[in-house]
């Protein structure tokens, strides 16, 4: 037996594990579902046939999302997390390479490297904004362009006019809107105008359903059809679909928590100025090399590297968690 050299040399995705009191490193929603909503979900699960496969193309959840978004189910695909969809999108189109805009979400490059697909990087400018003209120049030979808005890990929305410059090239543009609920601004209305626009979203952040692994894609029906030609069948479980559908039916719970997180985000930003950057997501980028300092106090945040060496990314948590982070970072800054 011989394992591919590329696999053996691959750096796996890792997260810190251990017994720490505050976890603010994965951009999770800090709130679990209320008990009454869990009870409703449990009741629905009683009616599932656990001996049967789920719908082969996740149609129950696709139809629920279509109604929620005012679209047709033919414009929606559902994945076992949006990561599964990225895995397919890097292989689905013709082209010589993918284009990314670092610093950005690492899974675009992760899957491309896994399949030996070259990566062309067009770095964000000094304000972490995309360079639409430069990306457009590279897009003509690209199999796909990946843009995150709001961007992870910097937290900022990308200018609509810059994204449109890239869309005008006709190249597939994968716009990752994982944090869109915290930004209040989306490119969803452009899907009908640009058949090359593919929007990714997730149930892991605003919906607070990171544990069930559910993401979805909004795109032209031809793109959705192509995806389902190659996508693993039955990949989204009946349990996952039932839980996600229930949250769509009770979206007021999501909205209430999003409002709280946005309010806390702004409070944290004001408290941590001038080290914190403005954010349109549920986290803050902070220019303080305080990862180990916080870890010693039982607080886990995300340590960044490369261009963002010396920065940390902090998920907005519960108020008392945020208070501890603010206090610790102020003490760290004072020691500097």
UniProtKB/TrEMBL annotation:
GO biological process: L-histidine biosynthetic process
Gene Ontology terms, MF aspect: histidinol-phosphate transaminase activity; pyridoxal phosphate binding
EC nos: 2.6.1.9
EC main group: transferase
PROSITE patterns xref list: AA_TRANSFER_CLASS_2 (PS00599)
UniProt-listed Pfam families: Aminotran_1_2 (PF00155)
Keyword Oxidoreductase among record annotations: no
InterPro entries in the record: Aminotrans_II_pyridoxalP_BS, Aminotransferase_I/II_large, HisP_aminotrans, PyrdxlP-dep_Trfase, PyrdxlP-dep_Trfase_major, PyrdxlP-dep_Trfase_small
Pathway: Amino-acid biosynthesis; L-histidine biosynthesis; L-histidine from 5-phospho-alpha-D-ribose 1-diphosphate: step 7/9
Keywords assigned by UniProt, alphabetized: Amino-acid biosynthesis, Aminotransferase, Histidine biosynthesis, Pyridoxal phosphate, Transferase
Catalytic reactions on record: L-histidinol phosphate + 2-oxoglutarate = 3-(imidazol-4-yl)-2-oxopropyl phosphate + L-glutamate
Cofactor(s) required for function per UniProt: pyridoxal 5'-phosphate
Protein family membership: Belongs to the class-II pyridoxal-phosphate-dependent aminotransferase family. Histidinol-phosphate aminotransferase subfamily.
Protein name: Histidinol-phosphate aminotransferase
Name of the coding gene: hisC
């Amino acid at each position: 037996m011989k394992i591919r050299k590329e696999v053996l040399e691959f750096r796996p995705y890792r997260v810190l594990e251990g017994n720490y009191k505050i976890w603010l490193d994965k951009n999770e929603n800090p709130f679990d579902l209320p008990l009454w909503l869990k009870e409703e979900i449990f009741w629905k699960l009683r009616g599932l046939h656990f001996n049967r496969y789920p719908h082969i193309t996740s149609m129950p959840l696709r139809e629920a999302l279509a109604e929620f978004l005012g679209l047709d189910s033919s414009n929606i695909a559902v994945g076992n997390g949006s990561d599964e969809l990225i895995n397919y999108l890097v292989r689905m189109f013709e082209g010589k390479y993918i284009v990314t805009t670092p610093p950005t979400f690492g899974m675009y490059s992760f899957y491309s490297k896994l399949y030996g697909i070259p990566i062309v990087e067009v770095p964000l400018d000094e304000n972490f904004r995309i360079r639409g003209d430069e990306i457009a120049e590279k897009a003509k030979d690209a199999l796909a362009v990946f843009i995150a808005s709001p961007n992870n890990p910097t937290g900022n929305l990308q200018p609509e006019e810059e994204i449109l410059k890239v869309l005008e090239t006709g190249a597939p543009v994968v716009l990752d809107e994982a944090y869109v609920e915290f930004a209040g601004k989306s490119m969803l209305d452009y899907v009908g105008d640009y058949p090359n626009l593919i929007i990714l979203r997730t149930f892991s952040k605003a919906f607070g359903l990171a544990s069930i692994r559910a993401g979805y894609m909004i795109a032209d029906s031809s793109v959705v059809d192509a995806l389902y030609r190659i996508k693993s069948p039955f990949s989204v479980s009946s349990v996952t679909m039932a839980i996600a559908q229930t949250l769509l039916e009770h979206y007021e719970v999501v909205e209430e928590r999003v409002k709280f997180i946005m309010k806390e985000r702004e409070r944290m930003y004001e408290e941590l100025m001038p080290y914190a950057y403005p954010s349109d997501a549920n986290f803050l980028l902070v220019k303080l090399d305080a990862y180990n300092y916080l870890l010693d106090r039982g607080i886990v945040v995300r340590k960044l590297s490369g261009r963002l060496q010396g920065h940390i990314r902090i998920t907005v948590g519960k108020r008392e968690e945020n208070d501890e982070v603010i206090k610790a970072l102020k003490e760290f800054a004072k020691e500097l």
